[in-house]
Write a structure and sequence with these properties.
Layout: E1 3-6, E2 9-16, E3 22-26, E4 36-37, E5 46-48, H1 84-96, H2 101-123
Antiparallel strand pairs: 1-2, 1-5, 2-3, 3-4
Helix pairs in contact: 1-2
């Protein structure tokens, strides 16, 4: 069975089911239970090792937790204390985007970091070069 990832769906796995059809599911523990048929473009799919989907319930992923430190796959955890109201609001936003809370938070934080760094680069004085 083959496993794929797509840049258009960074928080989902795409893989073959037992009959060879392509399905997608959330890249989270037990995500296989939420699988749906994949109808997107196949050209953009990147084949990855099946073990990367371990822990999601996908039959091709084997047993046990997903391996760590795969390129492009989050491998470190950070802690963040939030109020119940913040968590509820963030979960609602993640649900709107059909993402896990962790995936939504990671995407939002990366977008904010990119904006901040772009603004900092734009504000940096440029050298006029040597005369």
């Amino acid at each position: 069975m083959k496993l794929y990832r797509s840049p258009a769906m960074p928080n989902h796995w795409i893989g073959e089911d037992k009959l060879g059809g392509l399905v997608q599911w959330p890249a989270e523990r037990g995500g296989w239970e939420q699988r749906t048929p994949y109808t997107g473009p196949k050209r953009q799919l990147e084949e990855v090792p099946p073990a990367m989907a371990r822990g999601t319930g996908w039959p091709g992923g084997g047993r046990g937790p997903a391996p760590r430190a795969a390129s492009g796959v989050p491998s470190k955890t950070i802690g963040l204390r939030v109020t119940d109201d913040e968590r509820t609001k963030w979960q609602r936003a993640a649900d709107v985007h059909e993402q896990s809370l962790a995936g939504w938070a990671r995407d939002e934080l990366n977008s904010a970091a990119d904006r901040t760094l772009s603004e900092a680069d734009a504000a940096r004085p440029r050298s006029k070069g040597k005369p």
